[in-house]
Amino acid sequence: MPRRSTDLWLFLIVTFGLSWLFALPLWLTGSPLGSPLLVVTAAVMMFTPTLGVLAVRLHGRRRGEPGTTWREWARSTGLTLGERPGRTAALFALAWLGVPLLVAVAIALSAALGLFGLDLDGFSLFKQGLEQAAPGRPLPSSPGALVAVQVALAVFLAPLINVIPALGEEWGWRGWLLPRLMPLGTWRAILVSGVIWGAWHAPLTLRGYNYPELGVWAAPFFVVFCVAFGALLGWLRLRSGSVWPAAVGHGSLNASGSLILLFADAAHPPSLVVAGITGLVGSALLAVLSLLLFTRAPVRTAVPAPN
Predict the structure, then answer these.
(1) How far apart are the first and last CA of the chain?
(2) Of 42, 49, 62, 195, which one's alpha carbon is 20 to 30 angstroms from that of 171?
(3) Taking a C-beta distance cutoff of 8 angstroms, is the pair 119, 266 a contact?
(4) Distance CA 263, CA 194 (A)
């Protein structure tokens, strides 16, 4: 299918431009990390890649250029279940439950490497967080039970809730952009799409989001994680021909990525720059796993790219 050379630029301008526009109040007010405005901004930003995809579609229609039907567009951008719905369903379940398992492995590896202290008896860092959130309020007598509930929600329920906002991103990044870049070659497409995805987070990461101790350096550092995790999400997209496994994997990561804070010792807390799934340990784990998956379970190198 013919592809206009302006499509990519239009997608990037709309996606990046709207993300900065939506984040502007955050910068003008100087709202701190953890503020309600930041939470709202992050949630709204997640839908800007979808708006970029729709802008490309609308632009083509207004120019009167020959295009695809909506059904063909949905298939080529991954909104359907792909050519093998059974495989897509299996990968959906694998991403839903497999990502929390990777989070657990990253936590265990980080603890084994001495990067932080585990406290599986008193959950001291978790209790410290509760005290800071509600000073003077009595702490639960059994923090372990509360931790178990938090883990169960993060693993089994939150990914399904998160799948819709995650789809707001994934339809753009892995649904439209990755197939659009596949003529570069699979690994180059994965690398370029991951770098673009990481750079798109700049309105938040330049303020130290994810890695507060790094300040503005959190922005380039987060690109490393986005390339590593984007490779796994890219494999899910290309292997299934659908964006839904990548969306639930993304949503599952958002739900479980901070679980390390539940199990850490307040006397030896983790630095998320190195420990956990979003640290260097997690990025290395994701990179190795992605390499194995692409090697042992090859994907289609020719993916239909939308007009």
Answers:
(1) 7
(2) 62
(3) yes
(4) 30
Which residues, at least 6 apart from 286, have a Cβ–Cβ distance to it below 8 Å?
102, 225, 228, 229, 231, 232, 277
Q: Where are the beta strands (DSSP E) in 24-174?
A: none
- For residue 70, the 8-state DSSP code is H
DSSP reduced 3-state for 305: coil
Nearest partner of 202 among 177, 226, 178, judged by Cα: 226
pTM, full prediction: 0.93
205-229 confidence digits (pLDDT tens):
998 888 999 999 999 999 999 999 9
Q: What is the largest CA-CA distance in the chain?
A: 66
Dihedrals φ, ψ of 4, to 5°? -70, 140
CA distance 3 to 156: 40
Residue 122 has pLDDT above 70, yes or no: yes
Q: Are 196 and 15 in contact (CB under 8 A)?
A: no
Handedness of CA 135, 137, 142, 146 (dihedral sign): negative
- CA 280 to each of CA 147, 186, 273: distance values in angstroms, whole numbers, following the listed order: 25, 24, 6
Q: Let me know: does 81 contact 244? Beta carbons within 8 Å.
A: yes
Q: Note whether 161 and 251 are within 8 A (CB).
A: yes
Between CA 13 and CA 48 the distance in angstroms is 10
The 10 Å Cβ neighbour count of residue 148 is 12
CA distances from residue 90 to 15, 245, 279 in whole angstroms, order as listed: 31, 9, 28
- Give the tens place of pLDDT for each residue, 5-17: 689 999 999 999 9
Q: For residue 6, give both structure tokens.
A: 């302006």
Coil, helix or strand at residue 264: strand
Q: Which residues contact 296 (CB under 8 A, 6 or more apart)?
A: none
